[in-house]
Amino acid sequence: NQQSDGSFGTGGLYKSNVAVTSLAGMAFLSAGHVPGHGQYGKNVDRAIESVLSSVKTSGFIRRDGSHDHGPMYGHGFATLFLAEVYGMSPKKEVHDALKAATQLIIRSQNKGGGWRYSPDGRDADISVTVCQMMALRAARNCGLAVPKSTVDQCVEYVRKCQNGDGGFRYQLVPF
Q1: 84: closest CA among 147, 120, 35, 46?
Q2: How far apart, in whole angstroms, are the C-alpha atoms of residue 54 and residue 16?
Q3: Nearest Cα to 161, choosing from 171, 152, 151, 153?
Q4: What gap in Å lies between CA 75 and CA 128, rounded to an integer?
Q5: What phi-psi label fits residue 6: left (phi over 0), alpha (psi between -120 and 50 degrees) or beta?
């Protein structure tokens, strides 16, 4: 169900959403379909192009005109997808977009150590925070610099969100 622009997602809510496209791309990768190779290699190539076309000059990955609840989710999944294809794609654009997207995540961490729906750094929740940390870990695995302080602050945020029974609350309020 890939769209003509390389994106995935149907209906009004998630059509052309970078998170859906990135997760679909990673599903293909996990099944052995890599850029230009495998039965669905061309689909992976088109998903990469779709994500790359959504990268803003700030490094924020968000498709204009698509509905997305919490665009930092999409940004995190798109950054993770680019990190996964980085070593498989000869495109310089993948490296450049991955680097810019990683820097946006680092810059938008809030004072409490987490992230939320927008890259404004005002508040945080555990699900968006974990999404950004997965993207940062993948970027670091590719050789991109991720400050230890960014990781340490995030780990501390997640630890503070843990309840006494071992579960986790959605948000740590106040920061």
Answers
A1: 35
A2: 10
A3: 171
A4: 10
A5: left
Closest CA to 57 of 5, 108, 120, 101: 101
Which letter does DSSP use for residue 118 in this model? S
Q: How many CB atoms lie within 10 A of CB 88?
A: 16
pLDDT level of residue 64 (50, 70, 90 thresholds): confident
pLDDT at 175: 52
Q: Which pTM was predicted?
A: 0.94
Tokens of 116: 């939320």
What distance in Å separates the CA atoms of residue 165 and residue 128, rounded to the nearest whole number?
A: 22
102, 143 contact by CB (below 8 A): no
In 3-state terms, what secondary structure has residue 55? strand
Digit-coded pLDDT (tens) for 3-53: 999 999 877 777 788 999 999 999 999 999 999 998 999 999 999 999 999
